[in-house]
Write a structure and sequence with these properties.
Elements (H helix, E strand, L loop, with lengths): L2 E5 L5 H14 L17 H4 L7 E7 L2 E10 L6 E9 L8 H15 L4 E6 L4 H9 L3 E3 L13 E6 L1
Parallel strand pairs: 4-5
Antiparallel strand pairs: 1-2, 2-3, 3-4, 5-7, 6-7
Keywords: Transferase
Protein name: Putative acetyltransferase
GO molecular function, one term: acyltransferase activity, transferring groups other than amino-acyl groups
Length: 160
């Protein structure tokens, strides 16, 4: 089994979009207020750029793109970033890819000078929530002001 993690490139956009929408549907994240409906999903490589203090990493397993994870400023904040769009195909779960992708994104956030990282997700994404807790994210009672994902029901924050 060969795993590679790379910065997203335009050639990855279609596969990443397909994965985000399929995994989103698997967990009921369909329609407005959920990450898979964000306009950036159609061209992730254009949205996540170093110039924007953002990053999206793509995981490849034996030559096949199986998912990814990103980080970007939250609501144009200089101090708060958001861990975004951690989506993995079922066959790639349980291999430590989500942890590795998240850690690399959080390392990037620290390098960019962010002091905290926010995320929102769904109660149905139990494995992801467990991972976030292990990474040091704390549950919030409500979303941060400015969140775009009004349909998410779990909100978390980590001090970097």
């Amino acid at each position: 089994m060969t795993v590679e993690i790379d910065l997203i490139q335009p050639r990855h956009d279609e596969d990443v979009r397909t994965i985000i929408k399929a995994v989103g549907a698997e967990f009921g994240a369909i329609g407005e207020g959920f990450g898979p409906s964000d306009p950036e999903v159609d061209a992730m490589s254009q949205y996540y750029t170093l110039e924007k203090r953002s990053l999206y990493l793509v995981a490849t397993l034996d030559g096949k793109i199986v998912g990814g994870c990103g980080v970007a400023p939250f609501n144009n904040s200089q101090q708060t970033c958001e861990l975004k769009k951690l989506f993995l195909l079922p066959e790639s779960r349980g291999l430590g890819l989500g942890k590795k992708l998240s850690e690399l994104c959080l390392d990037f956030a620290v390098q960019q000078g962010f002091s905290e990282c926010y995320l929102d997700t769904l109660t149905s994404m139990k494995s992801a929530i467990h991972l976030y807790e292990k990474l040091g994210f704390q549950h919030l009672d409500q979303p941060l002001d400015g969140t775009e994902h009004s349909s998410c029901d779990v909100w978390m924050l980590k001090q970097l």
